[in-house]
Amino acid sequence: MDFAITVTNYDLSRKTMRWYTDELPVIQKAMKEAAGLQFDGSRLKYDDFGDFFSIMFSQQQGTKGSMNYATYSSMPGFKVVGKSKWSNALMFNVFTLSMWNRSGGTSLFQKTFVCDMLEPIPENVRKEMAQAAKEYVKGVVHCSGCEKEVQRDEIAGRYFAGVYCTDCWESTYRAIEAKETYN
Ligand SMILES: [Zn+2]
Fold it and tell me: How many domains does the chain have?
């Protein structure tokens, strides 16, 4: 049985980041208890006009070292501590949105963005995710290594939920996968 909460493009354009971080976990916990079943409550289902995907947010907080002061001091979501060229930056309201196919077996989209807690996901992020969903339905995925478009039947290899083009697979990931599997 599938107890994941489903969100549409319309929902995503209206729910604030606080809904995902504060309200959603409470709803998911209540659903899990009501159902009396184990299920992975950390993922949402995304319904793009009848095509279903798994999505998940992670919020990144804390200190990120060695950020270029000139670049990050003016960027929302970062407060740079120190004024030397490479200073430590405090991150806040930095989120990563990830999307997989429905079963969660294939990674289709990942984007890190800065967003106020009381705002919905930025429109450009929502549009890019919807685009990746539509491409997947048409048989196109993006290589998890270099992001180039790959036809689904031309995927050279898989490593966890990552999918790789021939170049990335042969140059890097085949060896990593082999090492993990046989050591
Ligand atoms: Zn590649």
Answer: 2
